[in-house]
Write a structure and sequence with these properties.
alpha+beta; nine-stranded mixed beta sheet; 15 strands; globular
Length: about 350
């Protein structure tokens, strides 16, 4: 019997202090009810799909936006083809007005294709949206990415983001289902070098999980949490938490913010993962185990590695600085160039 998915914890009346001192330090997801309920965009959406459509088009910069179209028989699921070497959707670019017009035409029709215009950069495509709809929680990062997602009934497979994420529902309803990072082995991840939207995804259909093919997914379900969000609600998703997202209505709008607080001289951890494919994964088992012990000691332990040395004596293995980052980057470039 499929276990019931537990509800996500919810907060109301969240301000910047509450977020920074009570929610974010726990590195656990949280629903932030009515966080952006006062946004003009949300107020417009509550007056009808036509009003929010006009509101968005009034600030549109007339640059064609990304569009994914999924055949009706896929029931909104953006996914791979049957061989996992292609996808079940067609991607293109189109004017936002044309996309919204088509969404409005399809609203009351049965068995329609799924249309999904995703990860539209607000500064590029709708620049005035940001000032008119400020996030109540200031994000202390210059590297914040602000995006908008527009579509009808869609199902996005569980995936992770390498950044922290606050996603805000503007129009329609969305269901978020989250899994902790440590459940990765139970999520049956698809091909890493060919993904529908840049991030690895789970191959399991959350709406109808095939536990004969994916038996360990039952363990992931035991750790899953879910919530349904309406206009004005938001959700905080910490780094590397897997999340599946369902658009539940015929017209949905979501705005999200990705950010990292690490200094600019930090490299994305995914680059280290790729480097490990070159240097560690193919080693004999005994050598991999030895390297794992070294990584655990020098990289993943908190505060105890090299404690017998002064900060100066730890050299490159001490706390990372801009100067050390430049040295390490030069060493890596030189060695990769030589080996190539």
């Amino acid at each position: 019997m499929r276990p019931a998915i537990k509800p996500l914890p919810e907060w109301r009346d969240v301000d910047a202090k509450t977020f920074e001192t009570q929610i974010r330090p726990g590195a656990r997801p949280a629903v932030l009810r009515n966080l952006v309920g006062q946004w003009p965009a949300v107020k417009s959406a509550q007056s009808g799909a036509g009003n929010i459509s006009a509101y968005l088009l009034s600030m549109y910069a007339n640059v064609p936006v990304p569009l994914f179209e999924v055949p009706a028989e896929m029931n909104g699921r953006l996914f791979y083809d049957t061989q996992l070497n292609g996808f079940n959707f067609r991607s293109s670019r189109a004017p936002l007005g044309a996309i919204i017009s088509r969404l409005m035409e399809l609203r009351d029709q049965p068995n329609v294709p799924a249309l999904y215009s995703g990860s539209i950069s607000l500064p590029i495509y709708l620049p005035s949206f940001i000032d008119g709809n400020p996030l109540p929680i200031p994000l202390r990062s210059e590297a914040t990415l602000q995006s908008i997602w527009i579509g009808n009934r869609t199902r996005v497979a569980a995936h992770f983001d390498a950044s922290e994420n606050i996603a805000c529902v503007v129009a329609g309803r969305r269901r978020f289902t989250l899994f902790p990072p440590e459940q990765v082995a139970n999520l049956y991840v698809g091909p890493l070098d060919r993904t529908p939207a840049g991030q690895p995804i789970s191959l399991v259909d959350l709406a109808a999980p095939d536990l004969d093919r994916f038996p360990r997914f039952a363990q992931a379900l035991e750790q899953a949490q879910s919530a349904e969000l309406g206009p004005g609600d938001a959700i905080y998703i910490p780094t590397l938490w897997w999340h599946a997202v369902d658009g539940l209505d015929a017209f949905n709008v979501l705005v999200n913010y990705w950010w990292q607080d690490t200094p600019a001289y930090f490299e994305p951890p995914m680059q280290s993962l790729l480097h490990c494919l070159l240097s560690i994964k193919g080693l004999p088992a005994a050598q991999r185990s030895a390297w794992k012990a070294l990584f655990d000691y020098l990289i993943f332990q908190d505060g105890t590695a090299l404690e017998h040395l002064s900060a100066q004596q730890r050299g490159l293995f001490g706390d990372l600085t801009s100067e050390k980052a430049s040295i390490i980057r030069a060493m890596l470039l030189e060695r990769l160039s030589r080996d190539g």
